[in-house]
Amino acid sequence: MSRSPAGRQPEVKGWLADSFDDFFGNTAVSSSTVSAKLPRSNSGRNCQQNKDPSSVPACSKSKVLPKKRTKSSSVDLPGNKCRQNQSQSQDEPWVDKYKPETQNDLAVQKKKIEEVETWLKTHAFQRPPKQGGSVLLLTGPPGCGKTATIQILAKDLDIQVQEWTNPILLDFTKEDLRSTFGHVSNFHTFPSQAQAALFQDFLLRANKYNKLQMLGESSGNDKKLILIEDIPNQFYRDPSSLHEILRRFVRTSRCPLIFIISDNFSGDSNQRLLFPKEILEELCISVISFKPIAPTNMMKVLNRIAATEASMNGDKNYAPDRTSLELLCRGCSGDIRSAINSLQFSSMKDFSLEKNFWSRKEGNSKLKHGAAAVCKSRKKSKCDPSEDQEIQAIGGKDASIFLFHALGKIIYCKREPLSESEVLQLPSHLSEYRRDTLLIQPEVIVEKSHMSGSMFNLYLHQNYIEFFTDIDDVVRASEYLSTADVLCSNWNSRLVMEEYSASVATRGVIHSNTSRAFAHCQGGMGFRPLHKPQWFFINNKYQENCLAARSLFSSFCLPPECLQTELLPYLAMLANPMRNQAQIAFIQDVGRLPLKRRFGRLKLETLTDKDPGTPDRFASFEGDHDGVHATEMDVQMEQNRTHESGSDGFPLSSSQCSGSELPCSQPQPVAAQAAMEEDELKIEEYDSD
Ligand SMILES: Nc1ncnc2c1ncn2[C@@H]1O[C@H](COP(=O)(O)OP(=O)(O)OP(=O)(O)O)[C@@H](O)[C@H]1O
Questions:
Q1: Distance CA 523, CA 354 (A)
Q2: With b meaning 16 or more CB within 10 Å and e meaning fewer, what string describes 43-61?
Q3: Which pLDDT score is estimated for 149?
Q4: What pLDDT score was predicted for residue 457?
Q5: Using CA positions, which residue lies closest to atom 5 of ligand 1?
Q6: 543 vs 506: CA distance, rounded Å
Q7: Residue 124 buriedness (CB in 10 A; 0-12 / 13-18 / 19+)
Q8: Deepest in the core among 21, 231, 274, 658, taking most CB within 10 A?
Q9: Residue 524: pLDDT band by 50, 70, 90 thresholds?
Q10: Residue of 259, 290, 337, 342 to test ligand 1 pocket, by largest number of atoms within 8 Å of CB
Q11: Does 458 score more than 90 pLDDT?
């Protein structure tokens, strides 16, 4: 019943065979993963190409080695070489079919290509370097051409690429490891560490041994580089084990080592986790950050592909027009892989005719016009993919914006002038509320920042004032922020209300700023740094004090807030509160707010452009403030344990530790002491024992 018509069988078999080549007797050479990649002209289609068997390092011979997703169709396996036919080439993913072959084909910024090329030349040809190893870290959003750039440059410079891909170690045992390496390894071989062990071994061998020279190969250049894109999971759990391996590698390195790490929506946290600043410095690791593919470059590539396909299969494929390509381009957030895939998908005849995506999609023409108009008004490259959420082409990525940019969009709030006919005539008593049209949707921006509304509000609250010029505007904005705060105050409804709260805060701040009310008066602001909220520090301090209060005055059986706001101020007024030293210090610190005391401004921490914004300890508890508090308590407990006072055994808040260098919302003990002397107040020590 479900049998396919005979005519369709070869086609089905074609893609089935492609995808399951590993199971059709080709496992011996299926390790595209860790194999050295030879320079090649057109790997995906060249049936004659030889594969170098010597290039499979020890670990690749061990177990199952999966093919890499992006390269699956470009691997020349003997089994599928002869099966390639017309229908297969039509099914071939366009990202592979139109993979760049030369530097000129790359849609990547020229400057970045040059940077990587210079680094490669320096580290592959001018060895040995004076100090440290040759390790490069390439970062940037997914699909911005990092891997493609390395592959093309390596081909141009005649450098082999030896790449690591995580093996699957479902049933890897100590015995397996022993039989693979022929000796009892020094590594602990329980499964969670096997990947890391194999990785270390791969690195050691790749660094130590040259490729075997095969018949017919020139002996000229034996340069190679090691490429790591697939990082063993173990290193995310225990980054120090990666650092140790890298230290060893750097001491003996003979060839460059390149890591590729793609940014994710939570910023560069993976990068910071695996390669913290200290390690970058210690091992002299170079970092080159790629940017999303620029819309103009993306359009060129999409145009070229669409034109080629249209000319080849005029009747089969439906070529999208320029506006459609623009939509597609803007929906993929600078990810060329996603853009090409979407183009292929949307160009399929079945899809485009049956669903009539480009021509009849409901409301599409309106959107297209909207897109075109917005683009036009903002001139060429100013079209920002992230700003027009409704204009999501098929396959459009769920775009994200780094917090830094998201805040910038709210605070700078770009506007578009209204034509006379469009101007909504407000009654004269409301004329002060007239504004040009906003080019952004604040709610969408908050959503794309992947941050809870209340956390976003915190950042906005910290930074908006610098961008205001009128005190009345500040008053209005702060009222909106207060309202937003109240909306989130009930834990029961917080999850739902956060979206409304962020909407009130962002729109309130935008609307209040009369200096940015019209498109014509938006210039001249210049760049101003953004900062992280002081709230983090103050909240920390608050938690810290609560813990200390509870533990120092446990006998009163009062909640910490009550202790700090009622009991301690009262005790501070007593000449002889009958307390021990730790308690007295705490009373001085928390229980008194003498008017003469001067509070310095906190030193603010700058927000960098890829900062995820949510401090690590808040990250997993976003949206759950009780959770936040619980975590903070734990963190604080830990800190307090380290600060424990030797004499009393009481945990002290950090403000009581004289060495504290951080600016402090509370007076330092010395300050408290000084203030106390001014007030001529004496608190005697009382030994309760
Ligand atoms: N003109 C082009 N420039 C760059 N890449 C292109 C171009 N045309 C097609 N491509 C294809 O787009 C894909 C780009 O993905 P690539 O792996 O280089 O990105 P990446 O930045 O390494 O991201 P990821 O970390 O997600 O792999 C490749 O499959 C490449 O063949």
A1: 48
A2: bbeeeeeebbeebbbbbbe
A3: 94
A4: 94
A5: 145
A6: 28
A7: buried
A8: 21
A9: low
A10: 337
A11: yes
Burial class (CB in 10 A: 0-12, 13-18, 19+), 459: buried
Q: Which of 97, 106, 147 to mutate to test the pocket of ligand 1 (most atoms within 8 A of CB)?
A: 147
**Is the pLDDT at 254 greater than 90, yes or no?**
no
**Dihedral pair phi/psi, residue 27, rounded to 5°:** -60, -30
Q: pLDDT digits over 486-505, tens only?
A: 999 888 888 889 999 999 99
Which amino acid, residue 377?
Answer: S
Alpha carbon 292 to its chain's center: 13
Distance 336 CA to ligand 1 centre (A): 6
Q: Which atom of ligand 1 is nearest to the CA of 96?
A: 31
How far is the centre of ligand 1, averaged over its atoms, from the C-alpha of 344 (Å)?
Answer: 15
The first and second tokens of residue 212, run together, are 């075997």
Structure tokens at 168: 């699957």
- End-to-end Cα separation, the chain, in angstroms: 91
Pocket lining for ligand 1, CB < 6 angstroms: 70, 95, 98-100, 105-107, 140, 142-148, 260, 262, 301, 336-337, 340
Rounded to the nearest angstrom, the distance between the alpha carbon of 77 and the centre of ligand 1 is: 22
Quickly count helices (H) and strands (E) in the chain. Answer: 30, 8
Q: Which of 106, 116, 146, 231 to mutate to test the pocket of ligand 1 (most atoms within 8 A of CB)?
A: 146
Distances in Å between the Cα of 326 and the Cα atoms of 331, 372, 380, 396 are 9, 9, 11, 12
Residue 200 pLDDT > 80: yes
Query: How far from chain centre, in Å, is Cα 188?
Result: 32
DSSP E strands, 35-191: 36-37, 135-140, 160-164
- Cα 173 to ligand 1 centroid, rounded to whole Å: 36
Q: Backbone phi, then psi, for 472, in 5-degree steps? A: -65, -35
Cα 271 to averaged position of ligand 1 atoms, centre (Å): 20
Between the CA of 25 and the centroid of ligand 1 the distance, in Å, is 30
Helices (H), 253-321: 269-274, 277-282, 295-312
602 phi/psi in degrees, rounded to 5: -70, 145
Q: What span, in angstroms and rounded, lies between the C-alpha atoms of 536 and 261? A: 29
Q: Please report, as a single letter, which amino acid is at residue 686.
A: Y
Distance 226 CA to ligand 1 centre (A): 19
Exposure class string for 408-426: b at 16+ Cβ within 10 A, else e:
bbbbbbbbbeeeeeeeeee
pLDDT at 472: 95
Pocket probe for ligand 1: among 95, 260, 343, the residue whose CB has the most ligand atoms within 8 Å is: 95
Question: Is the distance from CB of 357 to CB of 409 less than 8 angstroms?
Answer: no
Alpha-carbon dihedral angle through residues 542, 546, 549, 555, given to the nearest 10 degrees? 160
Q: Work out which ligand 1 atom sits closest to the CA atom of 148.
A: 18
Q: How far is the CA of 264 from the centre of ligand 1 (A)?
A: 16
User: Mean of the per-residue pLDDT values for the chain?
Assistant: 70
Nearest-atom number in ligand 1 for the CA of 141 is 21
Q: What is the pLDDT of residues 369-380, one digit of tens each?
A: 444 444 444 444
Beta bridge partners, 438, equal: 415
Q: Which atom of ligand 1 is nearest to the CA of 99?
A: 31
How is residue 117 written in tokens?
């090329």
**Ligand 1 centroid to residue 442 C-alpha, Å:** 31
Residues 6+ apart with CB under 8 A from 467: 411, 412, 513, 516, 525, 528
